[in-house]
């Protein structure tokens, strides 16, 4: 029986050892898990902090970029609106221009007819101008003879002027003579009754 006890105690020690080993393994596993969880929590905390810092940095870039994009989008919409209005105005003006071009085409037709009439009149005027040129040549010849006659008249008027000067001188002399004779004539009038 003494032999049986040690044999029975050996398996119980083995079981105890096995249980202790399992318990140690479990504790080691728990501790490892706890360390992993702690490390993971630290890593996650660091990740969260770095993500927040990164998010803050991105906020400094993204929000102004979004504001600039909104402003550019509004400005683009305004430009498109203005462009649409301008194109509408251009369309109306092109319609007016088309109407004006039709009127101009009609006016050009009448202008062409008028120009044909003007061309015919110019041909007639050319004939008249030739006739006028010939008449002017004849008038020139006549004017030349008139100039010669005017020179003769001028010379005659000069001689008449000299004659008139002499007459004036003689008239002045006669006036003096009459004045000298008027005194005795007055005296004689006193004696003559008529």
Characterization of this structure:
With 194 residues, the protein is mostly helical. The protein is 97% helix and 0% strand. The longest helix has 188 residues. The protein is rod-shaped, with a radius of gyration of 71 Å. 0% of the residues are buried.
Query: Structural class per helix/strand content?
Result: mainly alpha
Terminal residue distance: 231 Å
Question: Which descriptor suits the 3D outline?
Answer: rod-shaped
Mean model confidence by pLDDT: 79
- Which residues sit in consecutive blocks of at least 5 with pLDDT less than 50? 1-9
| CA radius of gyration | 71 Å
Measured as a percent range, the helix fraction is over 70%
Strand content: under 5%
What is the overall number of helices? 1
Number of strands: 0
Major beta-sheet overview: none
Spell out the helices and strands N to C.
H
List the topology elements:
Layout: H1 4-191
Quick summary:
The chain is mainly α.
Properties at a glance:
single chain, 194 residues, mainly alpha, 1 helix, 97% helix, rod-shaped
